[in-house]
Amino acid sequence: MAETRRLTDLIHGHVGSLTYIPPENATAQPGTFHSSRVTAEPPHFKVIGSSAELYPPSKTPAPEISSNLWQERRVQKRWLLQAHPEAFMGNSALSELLQENMDRYSKVEGEVSDQPLLAIGQMTNVSNHSRITGSPMLAAATGESGELLRLARIDQSKWKWGNDKRTTLQPSVIDPDDPEEEAIWASDGLPISQVKFATSLTRYDAIRWLIVQKQTSTTILHPEYHKVPVAQSSASDLNIHQSRLSRIDPNPILAVSHKMTGGNAQVDVAFNPNSKGLPPQIAIIDECGYWSIWNILGGNKLKTRLLPYSCGHVSDGLLNDLPSTTEHPAEKHGVLFVGTAKVDSFWEDGSQSADDSGGLAQRSSHLLIWNREKYEVVDLVSHIALPQLSLLARPKSKPDAILDIRVSPANQNHIFVLTMRTIYWIDLFTKSTQEEEEEGPKPSILISCPRLLDREGLRMTTCLTSEGGQEAAMVFVFSPTHRQLQTYWFGQSKTSGLPYWHRDTLTLPQNGESASGDIQSLEIHPVRLTRDGDASSGHGAYYY
After folding, report:
1. 10 Å Cβ neighbour count for 20?
2. Alpha-carbon distance values, 291 to 165, 279, 321, 376, 518 (Å)
3. Does residue 224 belong to any structural domain of this protein?
4. With CB atoms 3.0 to 4.6 Å apart as the test, which of 219, 223, 269, 274 could cross-link to 280 if both were Cys?
5. What is the domain count for the chain?
6. pTM above the 0.70 mark?
């Protein structure tokens, strides 16, 4: 009997956690069961239509590393010891210093940044000065070493199903053959490690920024779309790319050097929107775990400047100043703004439609910092750390580690944690009972589901979707070296409010040799589906 259950579980999957919901009238009818996993009419995720290559690869294939390199090093060391023993031994003091430096950076030696190099967001459309709006834009790292930034305007197309003229699908399209609809921005020639949009649609001071991070600096661009082609407002000091006229102006307004954040390599950045007179903020964390928060003063039309707000370390807590030297080893770190601060709705922009403002971040109340072993949530006002959850398994045979953490696009109080074994859906601010109200909010695990792919180099991205008339979150897990995409749906039941999840697996299409390389970044955005007039009986109405 036990073996039958085990085979059924392996073939059909686990039904999840069961919760009994008692009825309002227990004497008249029995209650119902809620399964944390969708078992009836589960959604599917698949590719429809064909794929297209917008731009050819900008990097040449890397040469293969010789498999006999370690043997050559052994021969070199043996010859050096026999021919020049004094040079082989070296200075003992210098040797200890070099060894200490190698140990400190051993965890990040040879690692490739897994931060997104592709992003889709909004730029400021100033083609009509009487009505400043936002226009969709694509930003992606390009160039031989990823040192350039490509900015391209996105248009909306209209698709219809046969005779169904009332239902319209509006996917995004890019014209790569129009040079005036794209711009190339270059700075110092160093490779870009992350590209991220920062958008805040407040009533009086909307922000449409683009954050470009390198190991040595974090630059904020305020891209603008003009009616006629213009020259870039700030050219690069290095003549890396020949500038040309374009309707898109990258317009860099601010740069934060690594010397301002402790001197170590910067590895992640987060944006906290402005609201109710509070200035926008950025948080930067370096490879040794030191984080700093900066207020951005001045706005888009005035001279922008930085003002330090707070700083600290993932293990040492809050600090008065960032040290110039450190003993903490360099490893993977991340930073996020989480939680929703109490803001007067008067300051929100009511003119923005739900499609334009959906999924945009609001003013946050807490800062989340993490590394491969733990995470920490700090209150931005009281600087008090919230309780933690023990997420990592501690088996002797196989280690576990945190690979990535993302804020839920449906609720800023929720996060998704990707480990080497599991995906966790966590509520950081669970509503406390009356007895626990004085202790403050506590985190709780809403859903924990195992992963099909068991690899250390997995990456995660999220997307906001609508499920049954309410917002839900989709989480995508993929490996750079494999074209299998795991799709997860996370939502809450409309009737009971209990969480549920579902998983689907998709193999990404591969057309031609250009798609045979590793996946560097993956962005998935919902496509708008509209219907005009009364209900139609065509295929389009079926999806509406």
Report:
1. 9
2. 53, 19, 10, 12, 31
3. yes
4. 274
5. 1
6. yes
